[in-house]
Amino acid sequence: MPSAYEQLSDLPYGHLLRPHTGPLRGDERYDTVHFDGGGYRDQAAGGASFLECAFTGVEFSGVKLRKAGFNEVWVQGSRWVAVQLPESEWQDSELLGTVLAGVSAYGSALRRVVFRRCKLESVNLRGAVLRDVVFEDCLLRDVDFGEARLTDVSFPGSTLEEVRFGSAQLRQVDLRGAVRLELPDGPQGLRGAVISTSQLLELAPQFAAALGITVKER
After folding, report:
1. Cβ distance 175 to 194 under 8 Å?
2. Bridge partners, 161 (sequence order)
């Protein structure tokens, strides 16, 4: 897992960062660039790559970043709204206090990525591949992991509302730390996950329904 860097000055490449100016460009290589504040609206930067970059207080709205690459990036206090991120790749990156709303990231790949104190709402991660990913103290609402592959993924301190795992492939996915686990599709797709006893009791009616069992008092 990437180290927990709470401040920009903590980044090992922080002293190398140079400010970004101008619009985003497709297939551009951004190396040690600092995107600080400001908004990027309806820009197209498909295929761009970001290496050792920082995003602080940035708002992306309707930005198209299909097949973009994010390697060792640090995102803090930013808003990504209606951003197109299908088939993007994220590695060794950290997102802090960031909002992702209406984001399409289907078919993307995330490896060694940490989300801390983030809000993910209406995020499409169908068919994505997540490995060594942590959602810590996050709110996940209406997030779709359908047909995704999750390995070594955990949710400590996070709230999961309307989260779907239908037809997903889970391996060593730890849901025990989630403070709320609301699965509208029931236990579908949970094979390979680890849950707590209390979570099992909460989900028992859905498990029974999935097995065709009717539970009622005499």
Report:
1. yes
2. 141
